[in-house]
Write a structure and sequence with these properties.
By secondary structure, the protein is of the alpha+beta class. It has four domains: 177 residues, Multidrug efflux transporter AcrB transmembrane domain (Multidrug efflux transporter AcrB transmembrane fold); 102 residues, Alpha-Beta Plaits; 214 residues, Multidrug efflux transporter AcrB transmembrane domain (Multidrug efflux transporter AcrB transmembrane fold), CATH 1.20.1640.10; 86 residues, Multidrug efflux transporter AcrB pore domain (Alpha-Beta Plaits). The protein contains 27 helices and 13 strands.
């Protein structure tokens, strides 16, 4: 691999203008397609085949009015008044008449007619039902409803909007995310010792991310895609794009520190060595994200493929555009020689990494024991992991969704926000038995200890379906609500005995079903990822023990990150600091997503760290010195890369969307733990205990596994510095004293 990338990089450098122009043209084309032909991002996380989705499909087919999206107008009377006072009632009736005229609205309920007024008369609600399903209700219609209720606010009433159609869009690009990018630039400047060199990873990463995100927008015109997929592509693409460029540039500048090294030769060798690690590490991220398809969940598969495509673009940028851009800067990328202010010998580059490696390997067994016990302690809260989708309680406190949730809880109890819908298919039940069957079911539901109320049965026009609303006593995120859904479904055999079918649906039931599906898919996904890690690292390092060590470390990182996520989002610690409005279950697809993404990123650091160890071992055959020199050579760049990822992911912690917030936290914490505790501490300790055995492999297995040479052992001997030919200009480019003065 290294030899081919070496030749490839030379070709890129010598045709740099064409390469750069091609990437800019690609950005323009993809940008035009993404902006001009993009689709509508969905806010719906559904899973085909689960019971709640089957019920929704049945309603859409046989009882369309009941399948439409709902905007719930929640009204609170001014202090000292009630919503039934003549003045308030008149204003409310006027607003609801106007709401009924909004395009797409098929029904508007009257609070006093349907019992939608709180016991003290201070809070009421009206359901505005649309012909379209919740994700398809036009934004224009919701904006018009906001205008319709404005006179109520002017009259002193508090008006908030909730309901299934008011799920907010997932957006990124706010101040917090920009702070993460600024921090990344500062870290790059410190790590590379140059403002210009620090700007290159940001420049190339932003170009790659722009292509990836705009391409995702274009694809959304043909495939249903959640807004989270685009944000995930942005988040991961930016982090890996910066890191991959950092790995190549740092290797390039490390080589240019030798004044005898030709800059074109250095670009080729940096791309061959660090670029090989980039290709291999990027491939692990791409495969891990694409492997989300095995969960069988469409929205998660699309999310994984969007992230994988963006990472693939980041890899291509690092091995094609980046060498071309480095070729433009040429000699100016050579580090300045430090001016000695005293006769004291300069501190050797990487000395702190060398000292750290020797400290860790001095008592490797103790380091391993303390590290593993500490990570297991961090993972302990994960024992109580509960999965779900965020309710409106998790939305920002200033949002109308959160305020509507609070008003409904105050006026009607916590379970009102968790209303469940029972759908009874009565087509095969004899006409004379339908009413009794539904009545018996309603009685059984009302008798449950956790049910607050059951609505009267509402038959479809054909009489083939009957719908009843069930209000629990507990909130949507409460475990008692999940238990209630399971008990309600346990009544299905009774209905089946009468030749009918019972389904439990609604937003809360859908969240429970999605969580159950993802929870059952997680063990298989983790198993696939671990096997994948063993195979890929065995190919990379031609070793059996190194992959086993890496896989165990990865599992510890995932466990610690999940434990921290449960501790914060489910148990409610640090809520004020992280601006988490309410505790609740961990986002249902977070464990699967975290496993896939963190696997790829963990393998990044494993490859860059251990490849430098193996590179030194190939030359010295001294395992102890290989560990020390490997850490010394790679510590600075691995630490910088990890801090950049933590900064980028950490910026998303303060995103208003609760799903993005939890993903940003889990990834930032997971990367921090994996880089600094697992890779920089436990890996050197484990390698010290393994010694020469770390690099051994049975001969029969060695014959089966290809030798990819990511360390560049078979590269040609470096040529001495000399003039470099630029075929675009048809003349020689030579380093002069003036160029040296212009070095960064």
């Amino acid at each position: 691999m290294a030899s081919r990338l070496y030749t490839w990089a030379r070709w890129m450098v010598r045709r740099r203008r064409w390469v750069i122009a091609s990437w800019i043209l690609l950005l323009a084309v993809v940008g035009a397609l993404g902006v001009g032909l993009h689709g509508k991002a969905s806010t719906e996380f559904t899973v085909p085949g689960v019971e709640a989705q089957q019920a929704q499909d049945l309603l859409k087919e046989k009882f369309p009015p009941a399948a439409g999206g709902v905007v719930r107008i929640v009204v609170a009377a001014p202090e000292g008044k009630t919503v039934t006072d003549p003045e308030q009632q008149q204003a409310l009736d006027s607003a609801l008449r106007k709401a009924a005229k909004v395009e797409g609205v098929v029904a508007v309920s009257q609070p006093t007619a349907v019992g939608a007024v709180s016991a003290d008369g201070t809070i009421a609600y009206s359901d505005v039902r649309f012909v379209d399903e919740a994700p398809n209700v036009p934004e224009e219609a919701k904006d018009e409803l906001s205008s319709v209720v404005q006179p109520l606010r002017d009259a002193g009433m508090q008006v908030e909007l909730g309901g299934s159609a008011m799920l907010p869009k997932t957006e990124a690009g706010g101040p917090a995310e920009l702070v993460g990018v600024v921090l990344a630039f500062v870290i790059l400047a410190v790590a590379l010792g140059s403002i210009v060199a620090a700007g290159l990873p940001l420049l190339t990463a932003l170009l790659g991310v722009a292509i990836g995100v705009l391409g995702t927008m274009f694809v959304s015109g043909f495939v249903q895609m959640t807004g989270t997929a685009t944000v995930l592509a942005l988040m991961i693409g930016l982090a890996v794009g910066i890191d991959y460029a950092l790995f190549v540039i740092s290797r390039h500048r490390e080589q240019l520190a030798d004044p005898e090294t030709d800059w074109e030769e250095s670009i080729a060798r940096a791309t061959a060595t660090a670029g090989s690690a980039v290709v291999f590490a990027g491939a692990t991220v791409v495969i891990a994200l694409a492997a989300l398809a095995i969960t069988g969940i469409p929205f998660l598969m699309i999310m994984g493929l969007a992230g994988a495509a963006t990472v693939l673009i980041a890899v291509l940028v690092a091995i094609s555009l980046l060498p071309a851009v480095l070729g433009v800067f040429g000699e100016r990328m050579r580090p300045r020689r430090p001016k000695r202010k005293s006769k004291r010998k300069d501190r050797e580059a990487g000395s702190w990494g060398l000292a750290w490696a020797r400290t860790v390997t001095r008592a490797p067994a103790v380091v391993l024991l303390v590290g593993v016990v500490g990570l297991l302690a961090l993972a302990l809260p994960a024992r109580d992991l509960r999965l779900g989708l965020p309710s409106y309680a998790s939305q920002p406190e200033a949002s109308t969704q959160h305020k509507s949730y609070e008003l409904l809880t105050e006026g009607f109890g916590p379970g009102f926000n968790a209303t469940l819908v029972t759908v009874v298919d009565t087509e095969r039940i004899p006409q004379d038995q339908r009413q009794d069957t539904v009545a018996q079911l309603r009685t059984a539901l009302a008798a449950d200890k956790d049910v607050a109320a059951v609505s009267a049965p509402v038959p479809s026009p054909s009489g083939g379906l009957v719908v009843m609303s069930v209000v629990p006593k507990s909130s949507p995120d409460d475990q008692a609500t999940t238990d209630l859904v399971h008990r309600m479904r346990d009544l299905a055999p009774t209905v089946a005995d009468a030749n009918g079918s019972l389904y439990v649906a609604g937003q809360t039931a859908m969240a429970i079903d999605v969580a159950g599906k993802l929870g059952s898919a997680l063990p298989l996904f983790i198993g696939v990822i671990v096997v994948l890690a063993l195979i890929l690292l065995a190919i990379a390092f031609r070793s059996v023990l190194v992959p086993l060590k890496a896989a165990l470390g990865f599992l510890l990182s995932v466990g610690a990150s999940l434990g921290a996520s449960v501790w914060v989002f489910q148990q409610g610690h640090l809520n004020g600091l992280l601006d988490v409005p309410a505790v609740g279950p961990v986002t249902s697809f977070l464990p699967v997503l975290l496993t896939g993404v963190l696997f790829g990123l963990a393998m990044d650091y494993e490859v860059f760290l251990v490849s430098r160890m193996r590179e030194h071992y190939e030359h010295s055959k001294d395992p102890a010195e290989a560990i020390a020199q490997g850490v010394s050579r790679s510590a600075r760049v691995v630490v910088a890369a990890a801090l950049i990822m933590v900064a980028v992911f950490g910026g998303f912690i303060f995103n208003a969307d609760p799903i993005i917030k939890s993903i940003g936290f889990a990834l930032a914490f997971g990367v921090f733990i994996d880089a600094f505790v697992v890779r920089m501490t436990l890996v050197p300790a484990a390698m010290a205990l393994l010694g020469r055995r770390a690099w051994s492999m049975p001969r029969w297995l060695g014959r089966l596994i290809p030798d990819v040479d990511i360390e560049g052992a078979r590269l040609p001997v470096p040529a001495p510095a000399g003039p470099a030919t630029d075929p675009q200009l048809g003349k020689k480019e030579e380093s002069s004293s003036e160029e040296t003065a212009a070095r960064v």
